[in-house]
Design goal:
With about 200 residues, the chain is an all-alpha fold. It is built from 10 helices and no strands. It binds fe (ii) ion (2 copies). The site of one fe (ii) ion has 4 residues, from loops.
């Protein structure tokens, strides 16, 4: 994996500990690689750079606000969520310019990062694949482990909720197929059929 854009991974590293980006982003990057196999028409470089850098902004927004504002009923529209997109655009621009990427590539990448959460309607196939790759980690065991704590839910409750939402949150059929495959595997591994409700320890 690190063979793809090792210079960008290195430049992004200072921004990767925030909000479990160093778990979320590598998983999302791998999903982007899988989605690109189904969509050879997409600009591979734009998709991969955008998914790699999309959440850098979380590292420089108010850490407390991530949890107080970043989750909840209107989480996708919260101010802190918009702030992480704008900071992500700023950071990604700096990284790509410093590393000498062409302006056209940089502009296409940051156009996707700007609004990757708050803009619901994708504008291109590259935008669609980034949104899908970003969302798919929630179906992995690691994604469930992290996100069920963020949302104060059991793994089973989180799987139930994301399964209900998954159909209409994915833009591509390839992502829907991956989501179903990952969710079935995760439910099996985490035994969500057996671990129905939390029970107090004896
Ligand atoms: Fe994000
Ligand atoms: Fe993300």
């Amino acid at each position: 994996m690190a063979d793809d854009y090792p210079d960008v991974w290195t430049a992004a590293l200072p921004y990767m500990r925030a909000r479990k980006n160093d778990v979320h982003v590598p998983l999302a990057f791998d999903f982007a690689l899988q989605l690109l196999e189904h969509h050879p028409e997409a600009e591979r470089e734009v998709v991969l750079l955008a998914i790699l850098l999309h959440d850098c902004g979380w590292a420089v927004v108010d850490q407390e606000a991530i949890f107080t504002e970043g989750f909840g009923p209107n989480m996708m529209e919260s101010d802190v969520r918009r702030a992480h997109e704008l900071e992500g655009v700023r950071i990604a621009t700096g990284i790509l310019d410093t590393l000498g990427y062409p302006a056209a590539v940089r502009d296409a990448v940051v156009a996707i990062i700007d609004g990757h959460d708050t803009r619901r309607e994708p504008r291109s196939i590259e935008d669609e694949l980034v949104k899908d790759a970003d969302a798919l980690w929630r179906f992995t065991p690691a994604g469930v482990a992290v996100a069920c704590d963020w949302f104060g839910e059991t793994p089973r409750a989180y799987c139930d909720r994301t399964e209900l939402e998954s159909g209409d949150r994915m833009n591509t059929q390839a992502a829907r197929d991956i989501a179903r495959r990952e969710q079935a595997r995760t439910r099996r591994l985490l035994r969500t059929a057996e671990l129905v409700d939390p029970v107090a320890a004896p």
